[in-house]
């Protein structure tokens, strides 16, 4: 595959992501608190997480192993693998909602999403990357790595707070408090957006930008849905708490 063809594929996939964002303004995906009947067979929540995230980990690992990546490209691959090792092998077994179910349709759609995004990023890093050691001295590396690490920390701390809201096998919902939850409803998603924004800056290529577009397309409607759900289900939900950006939205 030529680089021109590859970039065209990334552009097409980005447009699909934008279309998905538009669609999600009218359909609320049935996951977590929004699960409802009519979306097919359901499987245990933790297994759904493993199956969903596994392609992202395995594909990047595969391209990392088979290719002779530069040190900069290897750094990008390792950052990706760190995130998805947690998402695939740690996070699903930390959550206290193992008795909850997830529609198989959501799992399969996420598998396709992760297969495409990891495939595009892994393929680029294996066959098209032209990074040099001077790439570690660029402004986008410094800004990107700060955003990625900061987002990773925010995401992990926020996930831990959410997980600890429940006792083992408890499935009810409570108002999260502390840390950035004092200002926004979804700091876990805020951190994840920061991560992949930082990754896109460091990578500075089409597939990383495409993944950021898809991340926004998936998470922004999810953030809006979560914030609205909290407001509808908790009369004492903090009125000054915003959805994603303190004091703005």
Structure characterization notes:
The structure is a single chain. By secondary structure, this protein is mainly α. It is built from 7 helices and 2 strands. A two-stranded antiparallel ribbon has the order 1-2.
Note the main attributes of this structure.
single chain, 249 residues, mainly alpha, two-stranded antiparallel ribbon, 7 helices, globular
Task: Provide a compact summary of the structure.
With 249 residues, the chain is mainly alpha-helical. Helices cover 65% and strands 2% of the residues.
Largest sheet: 2 strands, antiparallel
The secondary structure category is: mainly alpha
Report the portion of residues in β strands.
under 5%
Instruction: Supply Rg.
Output: 18 Å
Q: Report the count of strand segments.
A: 2
- Count of alpha/pi helices: 7
Overall mean pLDDT stands at: 92
- Could you spell the SSE succession in H and E letters? HEHHEHHHH
| Helix share, percent | 55-70%
End-to-end CA span: 42 Å
Approximate shape: globular
Which stretches of 5+ consecutive residues score pLDDT under 50?
none
Question: What's the arrangement of strands in the largest beta sheet?
Answer: 1-2
């Amino acid at each position: 595959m030529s680089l021109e063809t590859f970039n065209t594929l990334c552009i097409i996939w980005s447009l699909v992501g934008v279309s998905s964002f538009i669609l999600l303004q009218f359909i609320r995906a049935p996951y977590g608190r929004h699960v409802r009947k009519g979306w097919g067979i359901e499987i245990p929540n933790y297994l759904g997480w493993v199956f969903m995230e596994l392609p992202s980990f395995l594909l990047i690992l595969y391209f990392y192993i088979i290719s002779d990546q530069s040190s900069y490209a290897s750094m990008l691959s390792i950052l990706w693998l760190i995130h998805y090792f947690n998402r695939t092998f740690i996070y699903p077994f930390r959550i206290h909602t193992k008795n909850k179910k997830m529609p198989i349709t959501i799992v399969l759609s996420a598998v396709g999403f992760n297969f495409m995004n990891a495939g595009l990023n892994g393929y680029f890093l294996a066959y098209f990357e032209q990074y040099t050691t001077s790439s570690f001295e660029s402004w986008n590396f410094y800004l990107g790595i700060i955003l990625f690490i900061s987002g990773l920390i925010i995401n992990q701390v926020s996930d831990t707070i959410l997980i600890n809201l429940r006792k083992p096998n408890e499935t009810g919902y409570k108002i999260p408090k502390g840390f950035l939850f004092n200002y926004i409803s979804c700091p876990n998603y805020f951190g994840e957006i920061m991560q992949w924004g930082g990754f896109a800056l460091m990578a500075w290529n089409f597939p990383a930008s495409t993944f950021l577009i898809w991340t926004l397309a998936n998470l922004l409607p999810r953030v809006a849905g979560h914030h609205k759900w909290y407001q509808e289900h908790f009369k004492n939900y903090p009125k000054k708490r915003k959805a994603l950006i303190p004091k703005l939205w």
